[in-house]
């Protein structure tokens, strides 16, 4: 099976500054990958490379195509929402639907109408009469109604209220996603997407710090809540991160089994936000995150 994204040794420099430092990434069909990193880590640059919007060095194939040389063919099979959604202010919502139906062979107008029905957006409104969040909602409705093999979302819910953010991700999973589709999403609201991801990648300073499936993550990482009397014993097993919490310490381990840790306290799989801090900060025992 051809990988949707096959990237090896991707590099990108802006002048003297290297912002992608040799990225290896494979994304198989039917997966939902979260790309998570701090500000300026290189997420958007990587997505731009994948979409053929920025020239990157290294081996890169997306749906078997070279994004720079075969961009037109690629764009027929990929949809994309940037973190800065732009729609012209003079356009009516109904005209935006007409336009998409006219230009995009894979656009399903009924589906888009269905997404819009869940918002307060009226067909006769002009884009300039919509709030910022409503413009994003419109943009998402238009893009989610395209039957693409790869959907790339860069901070898709920026500026949206919490109710709609939840609704958007539910809709993405229930009304959009199926095994023929693949999604690559970046966001800083890690907690909002972790339940829908099949794969997760952490990027920091242009390098991948974690690249794993959610199943492997559950095997490889364990969070232990431990009280003071067992702390030294737990620390001896080499946690990658430690933070204080009410009534004890919270330690994250990599490559130490839950069975081995369970006698020392309460064990569970760490949440992505805590794991992110653990992998991107240097382990500093005793310091609260
Ligand atoms: N056109 C450009 N010219 C010069 N430097 C750039 C350009 N675009 C991005 N950079 C630099 O590349 C680095 C990575 O930026 P990028 O936008 O990929 O980060 P990001 O992970 O998407 O960040 P954020 O979460 O803040 O959106 C940053 O240091 C940024 O200043």
TrEMBL record:
<dbReference type="GO" id="GO:0016887">
    <property type="term" value="F:ATP hydrolysis activity"/>
</dbReference>
<dbReference type="InterPro" id="IPR051782">
    <property type="entry name" value="ABC_Transporter_VariousFunc"/>
</dbReference>
<dbReference type="InterPro" id="IPR027417">
    <property type="entry name" value="P-loop_NTPase"/>
</dbReference>
<keyword id="KW-0547">Nucleotide-binding</keyword>
<dbReference type="Pfam" id="PF00005">
    <property type="entry name" value="ABC_tran"/>
</dbReference>
<feature type="domain" description="ABC transporter">
    <location>
        <begin position="5"/>
        <end position="230"/>
    </location>
</feature>
<keyword id="KW-0813">Transport</keyword>
<dbReference type="InterPro" id="IPR003593">
    <property type="entry name" value="AAA+_ATPase"/>
</dbReference>
<dbReference type="InterPro" id="IPR003439">
    <property type="entry name" value="ABC_transporter-like_ATP-bd"/>
</dbReference>
<dbReference type="GO" id="GO:0005524">
    <property type="term" value="F:ATP binding"/>
</dbReference>
<keyword id="KW-0067">ATP-binding</keyword>
<protein>
    <submittedName>
        <fullName>ABC-2 type transport system ATP-binding protein</fullName>
    </submittedName>
</protein>
